[in-house]
Amino acid sequence: MRFRINKHQEERAYSIVVSGEVNDDSSWDLLMIAQAMLSMPSCQELIIDLRGATIDDDVSGLNTDTLVSVFEEGLLLKNRMLTVRIHDDHEFCFYSDEKPTAQTYHYADVRLDTAKMYCKAMRWLEQEARLLTH
């Protein structure tokens, strides 16, 4: 497998153009590179172009479930778009069209003895949950 990385000047978009034979190992290498590129602050859109590549039948890294699990966190943290182009001019896109999700922590002011009581209750619930699964 060979690939070429292009940066589009007008937009904050990058593309990875893949050629040659893509096997299972090289597909995972490609996904790791694409994941790192999509997490760059300057990358708003990433295009993976597989139209010039020959993909083996046993490749497990390029199905939609794997792509979603690999790129899910990157798409949720920032407004980004991932496009995968395959043979016969088909493509599928993953994108987050909302503002980045911010982690919010809601704390309440409680007394120390009340917090200790809730802590004991949470430990008891965790222990009960473990017993239920076995």
Give an overview of the whole structure.
The chain has helices at 24-38, 64-77, 112-133, and strands spanning 2-8, 13-22, 45-55, 81-86, 90-95. The protein has one domain (2-95): Transcription Regulator spoIIAA, CATH 3.30.750. The protein is elongated, with a radius of gyration of 22 Å. By secondary structure, it is an alpha/beta fold. The protein has 3 helices and 5 strands. Strands 1-2-3-4-5 form a 5-stranded mixed sheet.
For this entry, give a set of tags.
134 residues; Transcription Regulator spoIIAA; 3 helices; 30% strand; 38% helix; 5-stranded mixed beta sheet; alpha/beta
CATH architectural category: 2-Layer Sandwich
Poorly predicted segments: none
The fourth-level CATH homologous superfamily is STAS domain
Q: SSE order, as H and E?
A: EEHEHEEH
Concise summary:
This protein has 134 residues and is α/β, with parallel strands linked by helices. Helices cover 38% and strands 30% of the residues. It has a 5-stranded mixed β-sheet.
Secondary-structure map:
Blueprint: E1 2-8, E2 13-22, H1 24-38, E3 45-55, H2 64-77, E4 81-86, E5 90-95, H3 112-133
Parallel strand pairs: 2-3, 3-4
Antiparallel strand pairs: 1-2, 4-5
